[in-house]
Amino acid sequence: MADPTYVLECRKKDATQLLNLGEPVENLYINHITEIISWLFLAYGAIVCSGYVFSAFFSYLEIREYKRKNGLKDEIALLQSTNLPSISILAPAYNEEANIVENVRSLLTMNYPSCEIVIINDGSKDGTMEKLIESFHLVKDDSVYYNILPSQNIKQIYKSTFKSFKNLKVVDKANGGKADALNAGINVSKHDIICCIDVDCVLESDALLKLIKPFLNNEKKVIASGGIIRIANSCIIEDGKIVEVKLPDKFLIRAQIIEYFRAFLMGRMAWSRVDGLLLISGAFGMFDKETVIEAGGYNPNTVGEDMELLVRMRRLMRNRKVDYTVGFIPDPLCWTEVPHNWTILHRQRNRWTRGTAETLWIHRRMMFNPKYGVLGLLSTPYWLFFEWFAPLVEFFGILFFIALMILGQINWMFVLGFTMVSYGFAVLYSVTALFFEEFSFQQYKKTTYTYKLILTAFLEPIIFHPFILWSSLKGNIDLIRGRKSWGDMSRAGLGKIREEVITK
Amino acid sequence: MPDWPWPLKVTAFFVCLFFLLVIVTVSALIILRRYKNARDRKKKLFQDNIDTFLNNALFDETFNLKKEAKTFRFQFLTFKLQKKIAVRQILVYNENLKGESSITLKNIFRALELDTFILDSLKNGRWYDKARAIYVLSELHVKESKQVALYLNDKHETVRAQAIYFYIKTAENKPLSFFSKLKKELTLWELIQLEDCLKFVYEGATPDFSLWLKHELSTVLLFSIRMIQQFNQFEHIPAIVPFLDHPNEQVRKQAVTSLRKLNYEKLLDEVMPKFSKETRLVKKEIIKAVETLGDLQMLHKLKPTLEENMEWQTQLMYLSAEKRMQPNF
Amino acid sequence: MKKRILIIEDNPMVVKSLEFKLTKDGYDVVVAEDGRKALEILKEDDAIELVITDLMLPYITGTELIEHIRNNTPTMPIIVLSTSNQEEIITDAFMMGVNDFITKPFSPNELSLRVKRTIESH
């Protein structure tokens, strides 16, 4: 969010006044520096605000168009159809003993005519594999696959002896992390379109049909499509389906709900409108397998593998000068549990920050590069300044403010004014996001929910935001500490892949 | 106030502006929510009304449709929202019922004068109203082909698509005759829908797909070649063969696929010599054809070409096919 | 005395129509939206003489429900009302011992006749 711009603004006038009174020369310096810094903060604040205004505007257009285009619900009939492209669903699992059987069962009831479900057991240390073998009557499967993408050793592939689970495939492999597991899944998968999901996600029954639709145009090549992620905490879920959407009582989760509204309904909708989307959430996204493989698959050396992959795929397409696009569906398709306590949330945000930073670092050549169009001139700079740097700027703003306070150069009127402006804007942005939710796909039906969400929007900048700020800062600190790992972030080049295909 | 320095004034202005906007948005939000809740209640009430009416009209033999419809119209069908809900409910019933009840439903639709309402929105509505109107007409088999023909080449994709589906859904025979009026390429999504409608909605005689093999749009060609295979029209195999040399790779690919699935025995003689010059897409399809129709020896003939061009996709395909074709596999 | 029929179906429109039509035909109609509720009703109410069920149901699928009914009250007549028209599913249903299979979209008049026939033959 916005930052200590206006605090410093005050210093300028103040300083001039001081100068006129004939201050000593060294103060002239300080005043000068203060003034420059103040202006920088002000400019930053202004850019952030106008960015938000634009994104609100574009999101509005995008949502309106989507609603108009998709008001008929005539696709449902297609679920019986036999000629839709086949999809491979890839779901990595690591130590999921407790829920794995239930989760896989709910995946198996997905409403789509032709799909295979590939569960990748990423070297779990608990009984995940045994549970799967037992519950789904798995036996060894010897069908052919090639390690076109590098991954840890695949120990065995399993299939079910039961007809009702004939679409299920389970890969047992050595542990290598989520990205590595997905790469193994890609190697084993049969179909040309892959859908990567978190195994514990709750999907709407027509989710796959909605996500595949963008692929089926014949104007532009679609390399990926993604949707809006919703928060499943407190919702009533039965047999892998959302039965009733409830607003959680916990402030922490409600604040995240508002955050998700802002990120998805305003942020990503707008980016999708200008075709500058850099991230399809790892929880649920569909990809063109060939492009994924050509780009080298998931990068196991970053914590932000979902963002990094999409950026790399886009970069590849751009370098090849292929006309392509990335689809985005504003319907609520995927529900996921978000962190319900501060510790886990801290860890998650810490990771997100590192993921963003790593991706931007790997692809730093795209930054401000007109060759990459919207991506180079808008998306990457946006992520740099407003996602990665925002917490830093905010933090330094606070430091600056403290410094001024120590120097005794604070005009409290301005402090008050500034605080009110940034607070006002933060709340305005949140309630606009709430309004968009109301306007688009309203999921929280009760009027009391609306009141509670509004209240949360007012409290969020005071209680929730400072914590997020701290988590992001910590992420940056960890990043600098572990900087070495940046060096060996080499990606699997296509040359290597070719070699593997040929030698095998 | 007047003696404030200007930055403070700017700040104050923005504080006021933001808080004003917050108040406006919050009130709009609350009003909208309450309005929607109230509307939902009304909708539900009205839905019950129309449900009762429909069930009576469908299953009560003593029901006088003409008279009752008139009363219902005056009592419950005055607002646009009510008409919309009535149409929606009729569509739901239409989807689940067949036989006599389905015919009765169409009579009810007319008796309630909802057809005039729909035709009006087709003529005067915005593009999304038009799309919806065409959709309703096609679902309820209201024949307005002349009206709908205007939208076959509409600039809005959604309207265009609905117009296309309309022709197939309402046709008694020759469901594809609208192809002759088509000037824009069909999307893959539309092709899927068309195939679906042909297989599951259209009930007339299966059309002769070879009629459209001279069409100027390549997606129509693609569709026809695919359909000849899907409906097993073996007699048109000779008509497909020339498309193995079509300039569009998608068409060539579809020709290979269809001929493979139709078990055309000369397919391999035709395509194997072309292999080295083909695009990646078609190459993959040829490998598949060799796997199903040929033997390991034939497959090995393709190897030199593969080693020349380093395409991993085709190579992967080749290697998998080879492994599957091993006698001991 | 009126014969009592249990309908297990989650589509409100279909429920309403069936209820309306079968009540008109002179039956006593009980409705369950899902398999779980259906089992409860079957446990408590032994006046039920026919079950009409969908196959795709929340909580407990139609197939499981049919198996359960067959195990507990083997003579209870069952009619399946389902959107699926795949041969495999239909034969599977008959193998499990259902008395009739009607596909959606359905004709209410035909359904009414089949209900009558099924009840009479028991």
UniProtKB/TrEMBL annotation, chain C:
SMART domains the UniProt entry points to: REC
Q: Which InterPro entries match?
A: Bact_response_regulator, CheY-like_superfamily, Sig_transdc_resp-reg_receiver
Keywords noted in UniProt:
Phosphoprotein
GO:BP terms for this protein?
phosphorelay signal transduction system
Source organism, top-level taxon = Bacteria
Domain Response regulatory, residue spans: 4-119
4-aspartylphosphate-modified residues are where?
54
Signal peptide from the UniProt entry: none
Pfam families assigned to the protein according to its UniProt record, in alphabetical order: Response_reg
Listed name of the protein: Response regulator
